[in-house]
Amino acid sequence: MKQQDKADLLEAKLHALMLASIAGRSGSYQTLLRLCAERLRAYFGRRLIGRDEDVEDLVQETLMALHNKRATYDQSLPYTAWLHGIARYRLIDFLRRDKRQLEVPIDDAFEPADSDAFEALLAEIDLDNLLIGLTPNQVAAIRLTRIEGYSVREAAEISGQSEPAIKVNVHRGLGRLMAAIKGGSDANG
Amino acid sequence: MRTDDLIATMAESPWPRLSPALRVAVALLAGWVVALLGMILVLGPPLAAVPATGLLPFTVKTGFTAALTVLSVFAAMAAGRPGQRLATRVALIAGPFLVLAALAGLELYSTPPEAWEGLLLGSTSTTCVTAIVLASVPVLISVLWAYRAFAPTRPVVAGLLAGTSSGAAAAFAYALYCPETTASFLLASYTPGIALAAAAGAVLGARLLRW
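^ inputs. structure came back:
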């Protein structure tokens, strides 16, 4: 299944849940908020690597914003665009506050390894090269579970693979990755 | 609080009945009525100048300001919905100005340059700008208050558009009094008042519309 199809499927589900929520089905609303919490955890987690407490605070703050501003959702528009707009606004607000709290010491030195985000970017670039050698199903399984942060069950739903297939593809894919990394370092050394 | 507990609590609360768009529309109307009452107190009953100016200039003035109000309100509402595209709606606001500029161009073209100043400023330019700016105050306060129900991801842009709506609505109220007849005057004397209201909206929006 292509990336676009997965995004469309997610959009269709979230949109349907939101319509049911507007119609007054609190069960649907609870499911929707849970799914949003998962998405937000992955979204913020990728940007604030290693700061799990901040990520969870931000997830809760954003959930409250989604709830308080729920009347601003226009039913004719994609739900994911609305969700992303709010998540992005909360993230920018958080980073702004975060910057104010930081005090820069006078003997502040430039440390290249300082930035988590930068390291993550580096890792992502390497990964893209390494993933080229894998089958599309393996790439999807590893991306969804190990990078995007979905559970095996959600990854199965999104990618259209069965749960055992996800597990097998992650396992085999990671095995091949390890072999590729070893092979690469051998070649370099 | 655990995230799941938070979700469970939120899921129990009822869905809001009033839409933010309706709130803003009602607030705009309420602020406009206050502005009109102020004008009635200071300038007397509306529409008194219409027999002198004729129906066509009156239609152009009210048409321009009404179109500007509607277009800027729609753009302002779009700015309050995360993920909504803004560019087209904001570009549409230029429409009434382009029509007016075309009419003003025709007027200026058919008039010798010595008479341009009279065409652009008329004899009531100062009154016009002052009235529009003062009338936009109650509208802007009311609209910004209601606008807080929206979720603008760019508060300055949202404030600017809310300010434009307020200025345009105030200009619509003043159009019921304006004794001038030319499109050139409209362009040169209505625009500054509306622009000031828009700027005030942007400055206030940066503070009041964050969430």
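The radius of gyration of chain A is 20 Å. Chain A is about 75% helix and 0% strand.
thumbs up if we can close this ticket
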